[in-house]
């Protein structure tokens, strides 16, 4: 319940959510704090998968 409170979730919010949804929100909250050395730009995925030829 502490983690739910940190996310600002209340019992009414949790009634319509699965545990997976809550875990995803916790993971995303942790990812928001990360600093990534490489960031994607438009077309990065297309180039990665060979579509940018």
Verbal overview:
The chain contains four helices and no strands. It is an all-alpha fold. It has a domain at 2-28. It has helices spanning 2-7, 11-15, 19-32, 44-48.
Stretches with pLDDT under 50, minimum 5 residues? none
Tell me the major beta sheet.
Answer: none
Q: What is the β-strand count?
A: 0
Shape label = elongated
Q: Label the structural class.
A: mainly alpha
- What is the overall number of helices? 4
Distance between the termini: 50 Å
Note the main attributes of this structure.
57% helix, 53 residues, mainly alpha
Provide a compact summary of the structure.
The protein has 53 residues and is mostly helical. The chain is 57% helix and 0% strand.
Which helices and strands occur, and which strands form pairs?
Layout lengths: L1 H6 L3 H5 L3 H14 L11 H5 L5
């Amino acid at each position: 319940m502490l983690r739910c409170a940190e996310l600002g979730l209340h019992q009414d919010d949790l009634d319509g959510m699965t545990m997976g949804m809550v875990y995803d929100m916790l993971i995303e909250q942790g990812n928001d704090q990360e600093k990534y050395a490489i960031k994607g730009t438009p077309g990065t995925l297309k180039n990665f998968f060979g579509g940018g030829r």
